[in-house]
């Protein structure tokens, strides 16, 4: 019975120290903190919606929902829901494609551009708050490790 309990305890520790668990915890905490900052700043956007806004912002021209889904490697249905919400909130404009009426073209409204600029400042400030606890060498190493994880997973 004792060896079974030790195996269970070891497995539990292995899971707690796994890449998936650690990244999941960090992601959850980052989203929670960023969402709180967005609320504090009066920006009615969720951290989960930021990638969509930023992709459209940096693209600088209208793009399809499928293009957004492909770029973010997300399913089209999830992107569509977020796009509809951001449209309803006045940050995105949705228009039918002139050439293919089945496609919706998504672009930022002036409110969307303004919000994206405010969000960029918040994201940079948040990043600086976290990274100030690391030396320059530690930052480079940490980001290098994350880049290596991405390249290993992509293989």
Automatic annotation (TrEMBL):
InterPro entries listed in its UniProt record: HTH_MarR-typ, MarR/SlyA-like, WH-like_DNA-bd_sf, WH_DNA-bd_sf
Domain of life of the organism encoding this protein: Bacteria
One BP annotation, GO: response to stress
Single GO MF annotation: DNA-binding transcription factor activity
Domain spans labelled HTH marR-type: 16-151
Pfam families: MarR_2
Name of the featured protein: MarR family transcriptional regulator
Organism listed in the record: Dyadobacter pollutisoli
């Amino acid at each position: 019975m004792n060896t079974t309990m030790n195996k269970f305890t070891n497995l539990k520790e292995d899971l707690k120290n796994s890449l998936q668990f650690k990244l999941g915890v960090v992601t959850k905490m980052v989203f929670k903190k960023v969402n709180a900052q967005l609320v504090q700043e009066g920006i009615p956007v969720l951290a989960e919606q930021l990638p969509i806004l930023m992709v459209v912002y940096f693209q600088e021209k209208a793009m399809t929902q499928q293009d957004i889904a492909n770029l973010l490697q997300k399913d089209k249905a999830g992107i569509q829901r977020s796009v509809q919400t951001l449209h309803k909130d006045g940050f995105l404009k949705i228009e039918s494609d002139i050439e293919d009426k089945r496609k919706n073209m998504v672009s930022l409204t002036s409110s969307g551009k303004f919000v994206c600029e405010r969000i960029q400042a918040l994201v940079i400030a948040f990043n600086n708050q976290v990274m100030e606890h690391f030396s320059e060498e530690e930052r480079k190493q940490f980001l290098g490790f994350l880049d290596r994880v991405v390249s290993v997973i992509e293989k």
